[in-house]
Every structure is written in structure tokens, then in C-alpha cells.
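Q: My labmate handed me this sequence with no annotations at all. I'd like to see what the chain might look like in three dimensions before we decide whether it's worth expressing. Could you predict it?
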Amino acid sequence: MLGRLPLPERRFVADALRTETVGGVLLLAAAVAALIWSNTGHHSYEAASDFHFGPAALGLHLSVAHWAADGLLAVFFFVAGVELKRELVVGELRSPAAAVLPVVAALCGMVVPAVVYAITASAGGGSLKGWAVPTATDIAFALAVLAVIGTALPSALRAFLLTLAVVDDLFAILIIAVFFTSHIDYGALLGAFAGLALFWVLLRREVHGWYVYVPLALVIWALMYNSGIHATIAGVAMGLMLRCTPRPGEEQAPGEHIEHLVRPLSAGVAVPLFAVFSAGVAVSGGALADVFHKPETLGVVLGLVVGKPLGVFGGTWLAARFTRAELNADLRWPDVLAVATLGGIGFTVSLLIAELAFTGPPLADESKSAVLLGSLFSAVLAATLLKLRNNTYRALTEDENRDSDGDGIPDVYEEDQPAYHLRMAEILERQAAEHRRLAQLGRDAGGPDAT
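A: Here is what I predict for the chain of 451 residues:
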């Protein structure tokens, strides 16, 4: 899993990282804007968040904050579903042997924070409702920190974080569906399933046209919302149905094409707007101090800052120790620990789960403050660890990117090809001939070593 990636996969990972970096910056800007707005104009922020609109007859007369969490965030989960499908069919998860390490790491990275939260909350006599809050990783923020601080990271280590985050998203979705569904309207749920079945049939019959799929997706989303199951599940389900393997004659599979079109909407609109109406919590010295005095909020912080790194690192070590998965010989365990620490950045999905777990004040806002603090501490700690290891990463990356024959393909992908060595022999012979010519010119000019 942590070996050198095939060149096409490496290029895909690099493109995804560039996109997620932009998304992470936008998400950070939205969170800062929400904090400033909510603390300088609290009444206007609350009025905007609580403003209701939508067709009441369809059960969709929702607040702006509700539309952001249940509506816009469905776009984010749709993209996550496409990413997961791609990993399952053509990415790192297509092989059970390769999938063992990120799957075990992701599972342990969710179980350990939940245990840390439960122990902390129980010891302080707090509520266990928030056990799932520190279990999620924010892929946009984590990859943004990784790209900004770890400028010379090997592509395989980046791919590990990307795959880990995708698997993490899948389990977070399952947690939302299983543990945060209070009631179910089976009629609406059957309608949503019927819509998904129609969506699948249209895809298999290769029916084209956004005017077919967008209205159908909206109907499926509305039915899923009214069923009582979190509406973002509809986005994941539709994303998983898209075909991500190109057929002969196709430059790009439909899933990758649609993801390419929808991702800017997700990273540039949906997720930042969700952050604006979810991250607006009161920030003061007393409020921040309360985070460390209440067992629930302290459990969230410790779950993100301590539980996540221990879980991801421990899961990776267990998989490497007791399965056939191996750590690349060029990497060291401190490198994995630095990336595991990034898992404690649990912004988007953690805020969503906090809203579902704690529905009333004061824990609703305090749990969000705990998510923000825990994510901040994890980002600073991970950035420090990455910076310490960056020189090692730089040396590895320079070796991985070396293209001595100038054909646009790094040498490491051609070292087993005779043609590559013949090209290198010609290049070196030309260089040797040029050096001999220069040496002869020096002798003819009567240079100091002419004798």
C-alpha cells in the first residue's frame, strides 16, 4: 500500500490533492468568516441561520442552516461516493491485500477516538451521546495542510491519506445512517429506493442529459429526507452507482467526468456554505475554558487530538505486523505518525455529527467549539511533525521525480526497461565526448594542465 504508485494513479492523486487544497482554503475562510460574523453580529447571524423557506406541503420548509446541512452537504457526500466507487473498482481498494492497511487504519481511527470520548465522558459523569463526534476526518482540511506543509511528500504517503479519508467517510456515513435516525417513514423510504432504482436503470441504459438526472436526484433527496434518514445518504448512494471504469473508446469514465463537473460546486459552494452556518459559535475566554471543564467537550478534543493519531497509527502498525501489508522501505514510522495526526482534523463531518448528537443548548454550541479546537490542535501538531520530516520527504521526492533522459517519465518507472538504459548510455556518451572536446581545447590553448 505504501509502495510507489503506478504512474496513472500517481497523477490522479496529484490532481485530487490540488483540488482538495483549494477546497481546504475555502473551507478555512468560510469557518473564519462564520466565527467573525457570529461573534460580531450574533443576532444577524442567528436570524440568517433560522430563516425558513421551502415548500411546506412537501415537508421541506427548512431553515437556512438546515438546508446547508441536509441539502448542500448532500453534494459533498455525492462526490465522496464517487471517490469511494473509484477506489473500489480502479484504485487502491480494488485489491483486498492493498485495501487491508487503509481499511484497518480507518476502522481503528474511528474506534479509538470513540473509546477515548466514552472514557472521558464517563469519568466526568457526562453524556455518551457524542461518542461519534471525534470519529470523522475532514479530507479537505487534512489534504490542504499536507499540501502546504509537506511540500515534498512522496506520492504514496499522500495516497494513503486520501484512501484513508475516503474509507473514513464511508464509515462516518454508516454511523449517521445507523445511529442518528430517530424515526423512519417507510413510505418515503420506499419511494427513495424506487427513485434510486430508476437512477440505476437510467445509468445502465446510458441515458444522457442533466435534465433527466438532476430533477430525479432532487426527488430522491426529498424522499430520503422525509423518510427520517439523513438526506446526505442519498448523495452517497447516487455517487456509488456511477460507472468509474472507462470503456474502449472513452477518454474518461462517466463517474470521473461527473465528479470533475460537480467537485467545484462541492468544494467551492456546498461545503463552505455549510461551514458558514455550522461553525458560528461564540468564542470567548470563558467559552473556550468551558471546553476543557465539561466531560463531553473534553472527550471530543481528546478524541481528535489523541484518539485519532493513536487509532490510525496503531491500525497501520497492526496491519503491517499481522498481514501481508508492508511499509515502504524508504518511509519511517514517524512519517506515518505525522499523517495519522492529520486524521484529528475532523471539521465538516464532525460538525454535522455534533449537530445530530447534541440537539439543544448549551452542548450543541460547546461541542462545535470542541471540534474547532481539537481540529486546530491536530493541524498545528501535524504541521510540526510534517515540518520536521520534510527534509527526508524532499530527498525521497527528488529521487522519485528524477527524469535523467528527459522523456517526461520519472526514471523510477523505466528502470526495468532496456530502452531506458540505452537512451541513458547515449546521453552519457555524448556528455563524455563533450568533456573530452573541452579538455582538448584546454590543452590546445596551453592551459595549466596542458602537459
